[in-house]
Amino acid sequence: RAARGPLGPTRGSQGRHVRSYSHLQGDIRMRKLFSFQKFFLRIDKNGQVNGTKSKDDPLSILEITSVDVGVVAIKGLNSNYYLAISKKGEVYGAREFGVDCSLKERIEENGYNTYASAMWKNKKRQMFVGLNVHGKPLRGKKTRRKNRATHFLPIVV
């Protein structure tokens, strides 16, 4: 059978059903990311990324947008900077959306989410967004999925 139009299933060259996830793209969620270390992730007006204990900090309100299956862009609503991880593992705020800004979102066994660079790895290991006990961003090269410093609870704003 031939592939059908936008309503029916489409088949790839192997005849298998090709799933379309286009409905997931562009989905925008307003969240605060509450770290396991009890900080809200924030991106300030200069693009600095850190944690705050204040639940009322307007710079901790984030827009999480799906850009691909399991991949998100996180933007500070009030700072207009994107959360990014450089090739060297530095966590920073990027003015424009670029390769550093695509983050793999994964829900861990404990119910917390982790955010790893979708583009960069360090020695074949993923690099995660994380905050230390003082609310400072960790270098991606030092982070691991099991490390609780990289665990965040998305809280609906």
From TrEMBL:
Gene3D superfamilies on file: 2.80.10.50
Key words of the record: Growth factor
Top-rank taxon: Eukaryota
Alphabetized InterPro entries for the sequence: Fibroblast_GF_fam, IL1/FGF
Gene Ontology molecular function: any one: growth factor activity
The keyword Iron-sulfur appears for this protein: no
Annotated PANTHER family: FIBROBLAST GROWTH FACTOR
Entry similarity comment: Belongs to the heparin-binding growth factors family.
Name of the protein in its database record: Fibroblast growth factor
Native species: Tetraodon nigroviridis (Spotted green pufferfish)
